[in-house]
From TrEMBL:
<dbReference type="GO" id="GO:0061710">
    <property type="term" value="F:L-threonylcarbamoyladenylate synthase"/>
</dbReference>
<feature type="binding site">
    <location>
        <position position="49"/>
    </location>
    <ligand>
        <name>L-threonine</name>
    </ligand>
</feature>
<dbReference type="GO" id="GO:0006450">
    <property type="term" value="P:regulation of translational fidelity"/>
</dbReference>
<feature type="binding site">
    <location>
        <position position="168"/>
    </location>
    <ligand>
        <name>ATP</name>
    </ligand>
</feature>
<dbReference type="GO" id="GO:0005524">
    <property type="term" value="F:ATP binding"/>
</dbReference>
<feature type="binding site">
    <location>
        <position position="72"/>
    </location>
    <ligand>
        <name>ATP</name>
    </ligand>
</feature>
<dbReference type="GO" id="GO:0005737">
    <property type="term" value="C:cytoplasm"/>
</dbReference>
<dbReference type="InterPro" id="IPR005145">
    <property type="entry name" value="Sua5_C"/>
</dbReference>
<comment type="function">
    <text>Required for the formation of a threonylcarbamoyl group on adenosine at position 37 (t(6)A37) in tRNAs that read codons beginning with adenine.</text>
</comment>
<protein>
    <recommendedName>
        <fullName>Threonylcarbamoyl-AMP synthase</fullName>
        <ecNumber>2.7.7.87</ecNumber>
    </recommendedName>
</protein>
<dbReference type="Pfam" id="PF03481">
    <property type="entry name" value="Sua5_C"/>
</dbReference>
<keyword id="KW-0067">ATP-binding</keyword>
<dbReference type="InterPro" id="IPR006070">
    <property type="entry name" value="Sua5-like_dom"/>
</dbReference>
<comment type="similarity">
    <text>Belongs to the SUA5 family.</text>
</comment>
<keyword id="KW-0547">Nucleotide-binding</keyword>
<feature type="binding site">
    <location>
        <position position="134"/>
    </location>
    <ligand>
        <name>ATP</name>
    </ligand>
</feature>
<keyword id="KW-0808">Transferase</keyword>
Length: 366
C-alpha cells in the first residue's frame, strides 16, 4: 500500500489532574481523531489492554483499511468497541441479551471482557464479523478510548494496532514501529495497563465459554457465573477439525523474529539448569541467545540478552511487560530465545496462551 501521513497526537497527564495546557491538547487530539474516524480513516488509540487500531464499524471502506494496514487475514473477525451499553441496541439481534449477559456487563464493563453476541443484520460492515453471525463487543476501560468513542459517535472496530503476527503494542512507539505511514492517526496516551488483550467469551445454553483468555480471569468469571469453562477449541489439535469460534486462535501471533520455545517444569532449579545448558549449546553453534524470565530468576542466567519480564510474585506485571519484552529480542537481533513458563492461573492463563502462540506451540517439559 502507498504510504500516507500518520497524524500523531500526544496526550499527557491524567484526566482528573490535567494542567490547562494538557487539557487543551487532549481536547484537540480527541476532536481531530474522532473526525478522522468519522471520515472513514483508521486511528490507533490506547485502551486498558493494548493499543487498538480503530475504524468506523459501520463502514466497509473504513474497516477494509484496518485489514490492509495490519495485513490481517480477512477471516479473523474484529472486536467492536462502544462507549455505553445503549449502543448495544443497534448492534445485536433483539432479545439476544440474557440475564447472564447483564450480570457480566455489570461486573466487567467497562473492562477487558469481549462478549460474543448474535449480530443485528445489516448493523455493521460484514468485514467486521468475517462472515460470522456473531459480533464480539466490549466497552474499554480507558479515559482516552472512551472519550474518542463518545465523540466519534459510531461503533468502532478495533483489533490490536500491530502488524499481523507481531507482538501487540503496549506503547505508542510499538504502533509507530509497525504502522507509521499505513494508518490515519495515532493518539499516544502512554503505556497501556493490563498488557494483554481482552478475554473473549460466549454464552451457550447458559454456560460461559472462554474462547480466548485475557485481562478478565477464569476465576473472576467463575465468581459471577460458576458455569464458566475454557472452550476446547482453544486446543491446537482441535483447530484443524472444526471451524474455530474465535478464528484468531488459529494464527501464529505475537512472535519475535528469532526462534522461540518455552520450557516448563515443576522443579525450578531443574528448569533453570536445563535452559542454561540449552542456551550454552546454542551459543556454541554461533547463535545470538536470549532468555525471557522473571525478576526472581534473571540473575541466574547468562545469555546475550536476559529479560526479566515482571515478577512471579505479581503476575500482572508479567502481562504488562510481555509484548515489550518480545519486541526487545528483535531490537537486539536475537535469533535463539527460550522463555520460562509461568503458572497457568489468574492472568497466567492469558500469558501462557500468548507465549504459546508466540512460540508456535513449541513447549518443552523438563
Ligand atoms: P484482536 O482484536 O486482534 O485481539 O483479535 C480479536 C479476537 O477476538 C480474535 O481472536 C477473534 O477471533 C476474536 N473474535 C472477534 N469477533 C469474534 C466473534 N464474533 N466470534 C468469536 N471470536 C471473535
Ligand atoms: Mg491482535
Amino acid at each position: 500500500m502507498e504510504d500516507i501521513v500518520t497524524i500523531y497526537w500526544k496526550v499527557s497527564g491524567s484526566e482528573n489532574s490535567y494542567t490547562e495546557q494538557e487539557a487543551t491538547a487532549a481536547d484537540l487530539a480527541i476532536a481531530e481523531a474522532a473526525k478522522l474516524l468519522q471520515n472513514e480513516e483508521t486511528v490507533a488509540f490506547p485502551t486498558e489492554t493494548v493499543y487498538g487500531l480503530g475504524a468506523d464499524a459501520t463502514s466497509s471502506a473504513a474497516v477494509g483499511r484496518i485489514f490492509l494496514a495490519k495485513g490481517r487475514p480477512s477471516d479473523n473477525p474484529l472486536i467492536v468497541h462502544i462507549a455505553s451499553r445503549e449502543q448495544l441496541a443497534g448492534l445485536v439481534a433483539p432479545q439476544s441479551l440474557t440475564s447472564e449477559h447483564y450480570q457480566l456487563m455489570e461486573a466487567f464493563w467497562p473492562g477487558s471482557l469481549t462478549i460474543v453476541l448474535p449480530v443485528a443484520l445489516g448493523s455493521i460492515s460484514p468485514l467486521v464479523t468475517a462472515g460470522l453471525s456473531t459480533v464480539g463487543i466490549r466497552i474499554p476501560d480507558h479515559p482516552i478510548a472512551l472519550r474518542l468513542l463518545r465523540e466519534a459517535g459510531c461503533p468502532v472496530a478495533a483489533p490490536s494496532a500491530n502488524s499481523s503476527g507481531r507482538p501487540s503494542p503496549t506503547l505508542a512507539s510499538h504502533v509507530m514501529e509497525d504502522l507509521d505511514g499505513r494508518i490515519g492517526g495515532l493518539v499516544d496516551g502512554g503505556a497501556t495497563g493490563v498488557g494483554v488483550e481482552s478475554t473473549v467469551i460466549q454464552i451457550v445454553e447458559s454456560e460461559l465459554h472462554i474462547l480466548r483468555p485475557g485481562g478478565v480471569t477464569l476465576e473472576q468469571l467463575q465468581s459471577v457465573l460458576p458455569s464458566t469453562y475454557i472452550h476446547e477449541s482453544q486446543q491446537q489439535s482441535l483447530l484443524e477439525k472444526e471451524a474455530p469460534r474465535a478464528p484468531g486462535m488459529k494464527y501464529t501471533h505475537y512472535a519475535p523474529q528469532g526462534h522461540l520455545h518455552i520450557v516448563q517444569g515443576e522443579d525450578e532449579e531443574k528448569v533453570i539448569a536445563w535452559i542454561q545448558r540449552d542456551i550454552d549449546a546454542a551459543k556454541l553453534r554461533g547463535m545470538s541467545t536470549g532468555i525471557l524470565t522473571f525478576e526472581e530468576h534473571s540473575s541466574k542466567y547468562q545469555a546475550d540478552c536476559v529479560i526479566a519480564c515482571g515478577s512471579l510474585s505479581q503476575p500482572e506485571t508479567i502481562a504488562q511487560e510481555l509484548y515489550a519484552s518480545l519486541r526487545r529480542f528483535d531490537e537486539e537481533g536475537i535469533r535463539y530465545i527460550i522463555a520460562e513458563a509461568c503458572p497457568e492461573k489468574g492472568i497466567g492463563l492469558a500469558i501462557m496462551n500468548r507465549l504459546l502462540k508466540a512460540a508456535g506451540h513449541r513447549l518443552i517439559r523438563v
